[in-house]
Amino acid sequence: MPLPRLALASTPQCIFRPMLAYIARRLLYAIPILIGVNLLTFALFFVVNTPDDMARMQLGVKRVTVEAITKWKAERGYDKPLVWNGAAEGRGKLTETIFFTKSVRMFVGDFGRADDGRDIATEILTRMGPSLAIALPTFILGLSVAVSFALLQVFFRATALDFAGVVLCVAMMSISGLFYVIGGQWLVSKIWHLVPISGYSSGLDAPKFLILPVVIGVIAGIGSSARWYRTIFLEEILRDYVRTARAKGLPERVVLFRHVLRNALIPILTGVVVVIPTLFMGSLLTESFFGVPGLGSYTIDAINAQDFAVVRSMVFIGSVLYIAGLILTDISYTFADPRVRLQ
Amino acid sequence: MKWFEVLSTAQPVILWSDALLFLLMVVVAALAAWSWRQDALAAAWARVGRSKVAMSAATILAVFVLVGVLDSVHFRARMEPQAGSAVSYSVEVHSVLDAVLADLRLNTEKTYSAPLATHLFAKEAVEDSARREFPRLKHGGAHLGSDLAEYDRDVARRVLRGVASGIAAAGMAWLLLWLLSRRGRSLADGERTMLQLTPASSVVMLTLLGIFLVLGPVFSLADGYHVFGTDKVGQDVLFLSLKSIRTGLLIGTLTTLIMLPAAVLLGILAGYLGGWVDDVIQYLYTTLSSIPGVLLIAAAVLMMQVVIDTNPEAFPTSAERADARLLALCLILGMTSWTGVARLLRAETLKLRELEYVQAAKAFGVGPVAIMRRHILPNLMHIVLIALVMDFSGLVLAEAVLSYVGVGVDSSTISFGGMINSARMELAREPMVWWSLAAAFGFMFVLVLAANLFADAVRDAFDPSTSR
Q1: Which of A287, A183, A175 is nearest to A224 (CA)?
Q2: What is the 3-state secondary structure (H, E, C) of B325-378?
Q3: Residue B401 near chain A (CB below 8 Å)
């Protein structure tokens, strides 16, 4: 996707100072939202079910002794009161609680330990790499393929080719994502023996493992995104400036790729930029099917092992990244459309 | 016992999800009746009716809905009466679909068998020899006896018989519709009837013919074979696929039903009242939507599972437990998906609020509640409807993914996701067990494709910005 050149009508200072103020204000707005997320996850994980319930669930509902539950809670630091510790001294009344140690500490990057005793924060840092190695190429390739496909459809609009493209898109988006993964693995790895069926390596042979998940991710996403881009482009193509561009004799190719694409950037950016930070989270399906040691498979393993500490941390990180994405979206508008000024 | 005998003596059972499904059908019927009297909406429905693709898709959807509704009427069968004892009912809860397809449900094999196979897929030791070979199936092709030379001719005969009965059934349906439409035409002039508004009825007939041409051979073969094979524990895959339809439909529709009241109320309130109400509601949905959907669903489902497991006394039968989990899943999916609709409704209300007729109503002293109910809500209905149909297919697909992640429906609930999940383990097998996967993906594809095509037509007809 060609990024639009930044139109520097005035000196950089004049543009960037309000922008910085804007970003600062948006960051301040993010705080209440994150507190809300924090309270919600706290309520979900500790109020709906007491730590006793969780201990019983983990140790097996039947034949569990009180001692075993106490030990389980003490090992994980769940033996404190929920929000108010009357027995503690001074500030400890607030800090010696589950809410403070488990939820508030997440704001400073302390996620505690997983059930296997490892530190969640270090685990997340090491697993980010493999997740990005798959998610980033999938995102970039997927975006460029879908946008080009949609532009081609618009180029051939109202012809049989366009119709065939629409039919293809609807059919592709009606297929379950699981089918693409299972079918792709079966065809490419099992029948054609082109690449290993699953696995991961960070060295030079990484592409061997990455190429199939990336291609499958791109194919699985084309249907819905290409159709959406096509709608955006078709809306754009009725505007006056397109008629003007055609009237002055520009070839349709230039009209589409230079004028329409650039003007359609705002709606595209709205949907696209927000997912960029969440790419760190990886994809649950792809990573678990292909055995990639990323954050997606980390989450899925935690869900299956009912490791609540990990799920809680991932929820928090996910919302932090989403909010970052929203701010990035607003900033990207100013690059795409110089008329947009952030105040 | 024939299925209608079973039904006539059974004790009806209404699960929570059944009750909600019937409530949904009443709501949809009421909405349809209401929109029929609104000229603009009736015209939009007529546009949907004129779309050939939409009517064809709607016919296919209707067949799926029929299966789902049959599977939502539950009962407990009466036990064989014992001398001197009171009437007792089975502890197992079955649906009408279970009763109709009792043969498919009960004729289980030992383990995997391929579609239309006569032998098991796994070798077994034979009694009086040291060899291991593929044993014959208990039910698949059992009517052939030891004479397997008849197999080809038997299959061909059944297919032909199925095609013939399919054509006959389509003919009967056509006759029925024709009689109905004659009645419709004989009504007074100017009276709107359904059939006069569907010039695409020839498409409906063709689609019905196609459906019957598929169903005829499938069911005539299913009488003697496992058409789509059997799964790991020997259950008929055709039966499992048909049972999965209800789960998919429920998740696709109940979720929207559960979230709509909240989304509509909050969206209108935020848009119309503005001020701090708007701030609070916006804060609420921004917070909820900032949590990645799958993770929120996973967290909530894990928590629900703890609640269900620690309170076993609240759910006496396994059917009720599975039902509770299904409803919880719908509730949670609804929690995560209302934010988008609420945002759309808020934006539209902001626009409507400034229009002259609302201003006029305000000037005449109409209260805010009356304005929202009388002037805002009816004009948001097209957005609600579009959201309802557009969300459906996504939710059906989401069910499969969530079941794979392990936070889907209860493992005892038959669903497409569950079928895929259990079949996935067998992909490494040589030769491959492909039929459960193929059946689940095939059924899902047809359902979702039909839903997508119908939703597109509805959106085109109702969205004023795309009207031609």
Answers
A1: A175
A2: HHHHHHHHHHHHHHHHHHHHHHHHHHHHHCCHHHHHHHHCCCCHHHHHHHHHHH
A3: yes
How far lies A42's CA from each of A108, A319, B279, in Å? 16, 14, 23
Q: Using a CB-CB distance cutoff of 8 angstroms, which residues of chain B are in contact with residue A318?
A: 291-292, 295
In the structure encoding, which two tokens stand for residue B123, read together?
Answer: 């070798």
Give me the phi and psi of B136, to 5 degrees please.
-65, 150
Whole-number Å distance between alpha carbons of A50 and B310: 11
Amino acid at B282: Q
pTM: 0.88
Q: What is the pLDDT of residues B426-458, one digit of tens each?
A: 777 777 788 888 999 999 999 999 999 999 888
| β-pairing verdict for B132-133 and B11-13 | unpaired
Tell me the Ramachandran region of residue A84: left when phi exceeds 0, alpha when psi lies from -120 to 50, beta otherwise.
beta
Which residue in chain B has the smallest CA separation from A309?
A: B299
Distance from CA of A315 to the nearest CA of B (A): 6
Q: What amino acid is encoded at A31 in this protein?
A: I
Residues A124 and A314: their CA atoms lie apart, in Å, by 9
User: Using CB atoms, which residue from A171, A174, A177 is nearest to B401?
Assistant: A177
Kindly state whether A6 is in contact with chain B, defined as any CB-CB distance less than 8 angstroms: no
Least Cα distance to A178 among A47, A56, A285 occurs for: A285
In this model, does residue A1 exceed pLDDT 50? no
Q: How far is CA A313 from the centre of its chain?
A: 15
Q: Which residue has the tokens 């999916």?
A: B333
Query: Which residues neighbour A249 within 8 Å (Cβ) at sequence distance 6 or greater?
Result: none
In the sheet that B11-13 helps form, which strands lie side by side, from edge to edge? B11-13, B74-76, B94-95
Contact A335, B316 (CB under 8 A): no
* Paired tokens of B5: 């005998």
- In this structure, are residues A141 and A214 in contact, taking their beta carbons and an 8 Å threshold? yes
- Write out pLDDT tens, residues B66-77: 999 999 888 888
Pairing of strands B124-125, B94-95: unpaired
From A176, A312, A319, residue closest to B444, measured CB to CB? A176
Classify A118 as helix, strand or coil: coil
* Assembly ipTM: 0.85
CB-based contact, B314 to chain A, within 8 Å: no
